[in-house]
Write a structure and sequence with these properties.
Distance between the termini: 28 Å
Radius of gyration: 18 Å
Number of helices: 12
Helix content: over 70%
Number of strands: 0
Largest sheet: none
Amino acid sequence: MKKDAFLQGFRDGIPIGLGYFAVAFSLGIVAKNASLTPLQGFIASFFNIASAGEYALFTSIQAKVSYVEIALITLVINARYFLMSCALSQRFSTDTPFIHRFFVGFGITDEVFGISIARAGALEPWYNYGALAFAVPMWSIATSLGIIAGTYLPVRAVSALSVALYGMFLAIIVPPAKRNPVIACSVAASFALSYASTLIPHIKELSGGSRTIIITVVIAAICALVRPIK
C-alpha cells in the first residue's frame, strides 16, 4: 500500500514539478538580483516551497531588511497554508503518527494540497511523499539554475512559462466541480471575489496572501453553514 501510494503521488507530482520548474527559474533570477548564490537559493527554496513567500524573501534580502521583518513578512504571506493544514488534518486516520503529520504539513503547497484533498478516503502520507519527491527537487534545482542564468534570459520569456501552473489548477478543480455543485459555486465565487478584492478600498491594499485567507474563510464558512458535510 505504501509503495502504491508513493508511486501514485510521484506520478501526480510530475506535472506539478514541471510547472514548478518554470516558476522557480524566474524566482532564481530575482534571487540573483538579491546576490544569493546557487546553493543559498537551493536551500531557501527547499525549506520554503512557496512562490509568493520566496519572492518576498528575496526582495526583502535585496532591500536589506532585518531578520525579524523577513520572518514576519514570510509568515504573513504563507499564512494561508495554516488553512490548508487544518483541512488536511481532518483527512488523516486517527492512528497516523505525528511524524507523518509533520512532514505532510511541511510539504503543503497550493498544488499538492489540491491533489491531496481531491483523493477519496483517508489521507495517505506516502502519497504526499511521492508527490514531493519530484516536485520539491524540481523547485529547488530550478531556483539554482535561475540564479546561474541571471539576467541572460528575458524575464518575460521565463515568466510566460508559468502559465503551465494555471492549466494544472484547472485540471485539479474542474473534475470535482462538475460532480459537485457546491464546489462549482465555491470556485466561481472565489474567482469573482478574488477579482473584487483588487478593487474594494482598503481590501485591495492588503497583500495577496491576506486577501486569499479572507476569501477562503468567507467562502468556506458560508458553504459550511449552507451545505455542511455530515
